Amino acid sequence: MKNICFASNNAKKLDEIKSALSGKIGIISLEELGCKEELAETGDTLYHNAFQKARYVSETYGVDCFADDTGLEVVALDGAPGVYSGRFAGEPRSDERNVELLLKRMEGKENRNASFRTVIALILQGEEYSFEGKVDGVITEERFGEKGFGYDPVFQPDGYDRTFAELSMEEKNQISHRGRAVAKLVQFLLTRDF
Fold first, then answer.
1. What are phi and psi of 191, to 5 degrees?
2. Does residue 194 belong to any structural domain of this protein?
3. Could you give the number of structural domains in the chain?
4. Which residues 6+ apart lie within 8 Å of 72 measured at CB?
5. Fewest Cβ atoms nearer than 10 Å: which of 24, 57, 63, 189?
6. Which residue range forms the structural domain that includes residue 60?
7. How close are the terminal C-alpha atoms of the chain, in Å?
8. Is residue 115 in a domain?
């Protein structure tokens, strides 16, 4: 089986990616590489952040790798939190505080439409590629579900009566922004010899 590094320290993202790639491509974690530092995300776009992380790992450790960045884009908040989704409520990062702030900012808003968008940056044999996935939905008025992470308890994808946090990992991987981007990545990697 081919192996590639996923440049993320987020254990839940790693589990999601490993589940999506199961049996197709082996994933090497940053921990397995010996990379313990927090990867910088100082860009003003999802593309910039994803490539910033992928380039750092590829150049520092000499491995093929991919990194992602994800943003929740809420119509009523003019696209916020967007690229700042992970640190919406400031440092230190906290899913709980981010969700709390989002719900507070959404109070009284009639338009609750939102999109989750993921950009995956891949560096393979010195070449750069990118893949994007997006899912539309709405922000619920309160939290529902215990699964997932981040904004999952308040994001209900179109066509579903449950939030991401109420879906199984398999269900979520089939329809999520990250799942869609990963599907494009996998399709691409399976055609490559590395």
1. -95, -5
2. no
3. 1
4. 81, 82, 85, 102, 114, 115, 116, 150, 151, 155
5. 24
6. 3-189
7. 10
8. yes
Token representation of residue 72: 């929740």
pLDDT of residue 190: 84
CATH label of the domain that carries residue 178: 3.90.950.10
Q: Is 69 a catalytic site residue?
A: yes
Q: Does residue 129 carry a pLDDT above 90?
A: yes
Predicted confidence at residue 20, as pLDDT, reads 77
In a domain, 151, yes or no: yes
Q: How many CA atoms lie within 13 A of 110 on its CB side?
A: 0
Which of the following is catalytic: 64, 68, 69, 152?
69
pLDDT band for position 137 (cuts 50, 70, 90):
very high
